[in-house]
Structure formats: C-alpha cells, structure tokens
Specification:
Strand content: 15-25%
Shape: elongated
Order of helices and strands: EHEHEHEEHEHEEHEHEHEHEHEHHH
Largest sheet: 7 strands, parallel
CATH class of the largest domain: Alpha Beta
Strand order of the largest sheet: 3-2-1-4-5-6-7
Distance between the termini: 9 Å
Number of helices: 13
Number of domains: 2
CATH architecture of the largest domain: 3-Layer(aba) Sandwich
Radius of gyration: 21 Å
CATH superfamily of the largest domain: Glycogen Phosphorylase B
CATH topology of the largest domain: Rossmann fold
Structural class: alpha/beta
Oligomer: single chain
Number of strands: 13
Length: 355
C-alpha cells in the first residue's frame, strides 16, 4: 500500500514525533511510506534523536502546508491508500481510500458542525488516541468514537550499577502548551532542595531536558534555583546518553499537572508518559503524580507509587529510599510493566489498523 503520514510538529522532537515516526518506521517494512514535510533536515534530526530505522521512508513536499493549494492537495491525497494525520484540532479533507486521525492530547477545539466539517468527518475511517486519558476527554467532548494505541517504548536496559539518583526526563517547554513550566520541573527542584535541607544525604536529582532558544533565559533561572544543591542538568543529550542515565538511576519523578485545574485544562497533565515507561524499563521506581496518563501506567504499590500532594511525593520518595526491599520489588515489577508497551506490539497494532 501507499501510505502518507503527517505530523504538524515534526520539528519539535517530542514524544508525539517519536510516536508518528515510529508508525512510519513500522509500516515501511511492508509498505511504501511517505512523510509530508518541507525540511528534510528536521526529519534527519528525528531519526538521530530517537534512533529510528526510517531508511525506507520518503520525505516529500508538505501537502498540508498552508501555502499548498486546496485542489492540488485534494488531487495529491488521491494517490494514497492510507493517510495518517496527527491532528492539532483540525481534520483535512482527503480523498485517500482511508484517513486515520491520531489525537495525542485533550484538545480545546476540534471540528465544528458546519456542512464542510461534517463532510470531512465522513471521510475519516477511524480516530485513535495515545491513552485512556486522551480518549475519555475526546469521546465525551466531541462525541466521536476513538480507539487506543499506546505509544511504543523501545527499552534499552543494561544491568549496570545503580546510583543514588532521582531522575526526571522532559523538555523544559513545549510549543503547543501555553503553560510555561508544563513539566513542573521548577516544582521538583524545589521539592528536592527541601528534602536536602531536611536531611536527605548522598542522593542527587538529575534533570535531563532540552529547551528552545527562546526559553534560554527562563531555563537559566531554573538552574540558579538549583545552585548549592546536588542537582544536575543534562541538556540536549542523545538517546544513548539518556538510556545510560535511566539505567544508573533508582527513582523516577514526574509531576506534570500538579497544582493545575485539570477539569479546565486537561492538556496540562501528561497525556501518556513515555519517559516514565522508559525509566521503568530501566529498573527505576516511578514515584509519579496521580494524574493524566501516569495512573494508567503505574499501579500503586505494585510497580510504583502515585502521589497527589507535595507531602505525599516527599513521604513516598523517602519510603522507597529507606526500604531497599520495597525498592527492589517495585523496580522488578516496573520492568515487567514496561514490557506491555513494546515496539513490537505497537507495530502489530498499527499494521492491523491500516488494513
């Protein structure tokens, strides 16, 4: 089959981009796959950042760009058996045999009920989301039926000596979210600093991140807040370097959504949590917020711990630190749970979806 794939955020190097380009990688084993994007350097950066095998994937002019003519776009879509489209709230008008719409997060706005949009909807073969959290919001708000295809996580576990590291992995800012400290990294820096002031010794907090140039000033302020404490920043590291860090760490923190009104802004919680699964696959114990997709990944007391307040985050982290037996049990079960999100399962599911 001839399959086209479009991701409007391809230059963002985030989890959504890994998701969509893994789809491209999986399908290219059996089908002709084309990615719609105008800058091949961005596609090369995705390949390098995530270590994906996309040699059989072709990059062609972005037919969904605003400067691409409407009728020319329609004619171009007819060439494809399937088009897979990551929606930013919009739905394209496509004449491909199949149109699959992927929704990566709770969206504030979607299609209207105009005749034009209803016709667009009629051309959609199926909608699929990355988590129950996203699905429940989309289904309820926009009255459409979606399925779930959890993101793929390529585990690279190595049995190395663990160190007393609490780790967090996440970009400092994301373009499509208006909340500045979306990942609550400032909050985690403050919590760890408080734990050190209260007597925690021989542990460090490592924040592995990246940030756009326009956020450089804000990021430097975050670094200043960490001065004087055993807090390290790993910036713009390769996939291999990140996995080395995962494998050395003992505990993983995630706090997206803390302190937010998630009824009003559900997009401020983590929509799934790929980095949490990666950490679990490396034998880290997740101590993560009980919100968004995190609670789909972690089962309290079995393969990690969930928290709702700052006090719970501190208490449960100390609980793991002070009890090696509990840490070992949770870490072992975390690795088992991470296996549920394998790339092999993901590829099998996406092949079924396009048929």
């Amino acid at each position: 089959m001839n399959i086209g794939i479009y991701d409007p955020y391809l230059d963002d190097l985030g989890g959504g981009e890994k998701y969509m380009m893994t789809i491209a990688s999986c399908l290219s084993k059996l089908h002709k796959v084309t990615v719609f994007w105008n800058n091949e350097k961005d596609f090369a950066a995705v390949k390098e950042r995530f270590g994906l095998s996309v040699e059989n994937v072709t990059v062609t002019k972005n037919i969904f760009a605003s400067d691409f003519g409407f009728f020319k776009r329609l004619n171009a879509t007819k060439q494809f058996d399937v088009i897979i489209f990551l929606s930013d709230g919009s739905i394209p008008l496509s004449l491909s045999n199949k149109l699959l719409i992927h929704i990566q997060q709770p969206l504030a706005q979607f299609q209207s009920r105009s005749l034009k949009d209803l016709f667009k909807l009629s051309r959609v073969s199926s909608f699929f989301c990355n988590s129950v959290y996203t699905k429940n919001f989309i289904d309820k708000k926009f009255h459409i039926k979606t399925s779930i295809l959890y993101p793929p996580v390529d585990i690279q576990f190595k049995n190395v000596q663990k160190e007393n590291i609490i780790l967090h992995v996440g970009r400092f800012r994301v373009k499509n979210v208006s909340n500045g400290d979306y990942k609550k990294q400032g909050f985690m820096v403050e919590v760890f600093s408080k734990m050190v002031r209260d007597g925690l010794k021989n542990w460090k907090f490592v924040l592995a991140t990246s940030f756009p140039k326009e956020a450089e000033k804000e990021f430097s302020l975050l670094q200043k807040r960490a001065e004087g404490f055993p807090i390290e920043f790993f910036v713009n590291k390769t996939n291999k370097e990140l996995w080395n860090l995962y494998n050395k760490s003992k505990i993983y923190w995630h706090a997206s959504g803390f302190g937010e009104d998630l009824q009003k802004h559900p997009e401020y919680a983590e929509h799934f949590g790929i980095s949490t699964v990666e950490a679990m696959g490396a034998g880290c114990v997740p101590v993560v917020i009980n919100a968004g997709g995190q609670k789909e990944i972690v089962t309290e007391g079995k393969n990690g711990l969930l928290w709702n307040t700052e006090e719970e985050l501190i208490t449960k982290t100390k609980q793991v630190i002070s009890n090696p037996g509990l840490m070992n049990t949770l870490a072992k079960e975390a690795k088992v749970r991470a296996g549920d999100f394998s790339k092999e399962k993901f590829c099998k599911s996406i092949h079924t979806l396009v048929l």
